């Protein structure tokens, strides 16, 4: 057992929930890209309920939007970890940040493609 592990049981669940809220708060206040994606989700998710699509299609429309938020959180976490290690320019740091950015690009492309395929 790791000495860095915290509580167990219900206390652990409450702590994890608090850490998650802290992460969402940090992303919202510190990451413009996350705020932009939240705005996109605030528009697209309610819009999906006004479209004449099946439940499965609606679920896909919503899922790809939420996936982009998840990818942005992970991308921001990678960037923060890299910056914590060093602010020096290094090829491996650049690769890590560029790969996170590429993942987000693919997630945004997926939103576009899924919405286009379902609506067209």
Automatic annotation (TrEMBL):
A divalent metal cation binds at residues 31, 79. It catalyses: a 1,2-diacyl-sn-glycerol + ATP = a 1,2-diacyl-sn-glycero-3-phosphate + ADP + H(+). Keywords: ATP-binding, Cell inner membrane, Cell membrane, Kinase, Lipid biosynthesis, Lipid metabolism, Magnesium, Membrane, Metal-binding, Nucleotide-binding, Phospholipid biosynthesis, Phospholipid metabolism, Transferase, Transmembrane, Transmembrane helix. The keyword Lipid metabolism applies. Mn(2+), Zn(2+), Cd(2+) and Co(2+) support activity to lesser extents. It comes from the Bacteria. Substrate binds at residues 12, 58, 72, 101. GO terms for cellular component: plasma membrane. It is an enzyme of class 2 (transferase). Gene3D superfamilies: 1.10.287.3610. The keyword Transmembrane helix applies. It is a multi-pass membrane protein. ATP binds at residues 12, 19, 31, 79, 97-98. GO terms for molecular function: ATP binding; ATP-dependent diacylglycerol kinase activity; metal ion binding. It holds the Pfam family DAGK_prokar. The active site is at 72 (proton acceptor). Its EC number is 2.7.1.107. It is found in: Cell inner membrane. Catalyzes the ATP-dependent phosphorylation of sn-l,2-diacylglycerol (DAG) to phosphatidic acid. Involved in the recycling of diacylglycerol produced as a by-product during membrane-derived oligosaccharide (MDO) biosynthesis. Belongs to the bacterial diacylglycerol kinase family. This is Diacylglycerol kinase. It comes from Pseudomonas antarctica. The gene is dgkA.
């Amino acid at each position: 057992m790791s000495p860095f592990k915290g509580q167990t049981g219900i206390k652990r669940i409450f702590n994890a929930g608090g850490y998650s809220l802290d992460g969402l708060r940090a992303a919202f206040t510190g990451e413009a890209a996350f705020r932009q994606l939240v705005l996109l989700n605030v528009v697209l998710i309610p819009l999906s309920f006004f479209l004449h699509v099946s439940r499965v299609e609606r679920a896909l429309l919503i899922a790809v939007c939420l996936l982009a938020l998840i990818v942005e959180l992970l991308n921001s976490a990678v960037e923060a970890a890299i910056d914590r290690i060093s602010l020096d320019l290094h090829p491996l740091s650049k690769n890590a940040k560029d790969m996170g950015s590429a993942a987000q690009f693919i997630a945004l492309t997926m939103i576009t493609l899924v919405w286009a395929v379902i609506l067209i």
